[in-house]
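Review form for a predicted model. The reviewer records the input and the model, then writes brief findings.
Reviewer: anonymous (R2)
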Amino acid sequence: MELFSKIGTVFSALEHGASAEGGDVAGGIGLLATGISWLLSPSTTIVSEIAKALDIFKENDRPEHLGQAMEQMDKKPEDFDSINEYIDYLREGIKSGEVKLIRNLSDTEKASYTATVTALGIKAIDEKYQLQPSDIFWVTMGGKFKEGKITPDEVNKILEISSKNSVSAENVANYINGDGMTGGQRASGVADVIEDGLKAANPNMSDEEIASRFNKLLEK
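Model under review:
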């Protein structure tokens, strides 16, 4: 639970524009992300692919560059109407040379910047789908992706359908993990959202193949 709390603090910093220690948001997120980069790592590919599909990240965006821009640029996420606008601002700082990029980064520094930008991407995805932040969802999906049980496109479709049906990302993770539902949502409704997300991502699969994919996702 402590690890989930740390991830939640990163998301909270992005949400409220302040670090846990009262410093600037980018610096605070960076410090927090350093400690959890290993935990966010399985989610990085999923977040990156979904963010690209939603036009949040571009193909040539590099997390270590965006992370350095977050540290160096004056404006913060709360200064913009959306995270997308903030990311555009970071890109412009990189393009103009205002951000002084350090090219020779250590593996630890790269991991920290990647975790920081992954958290930023998650915030942008939550914003796009109007979802409440859920660290458990992303850690769960990262683990399932690492096990080969789900693809980024399937995660994206599940999020899209969750949003349309007012099903929380937290309850999607709860269902997959065999935990109880929160907020009065019914497990059957959450199961339908997951199944519909798998169907939307795999339109050529038969019902039997979707059922097999669904059951595999629930395997411990």
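Findings: Confidence is low (pLDDT under 50) at residues 1-7, 14-29.
Further findings: The CA atoms of residues 29 and 128 lie 21 Å apart.
Recommendation: see findings above.
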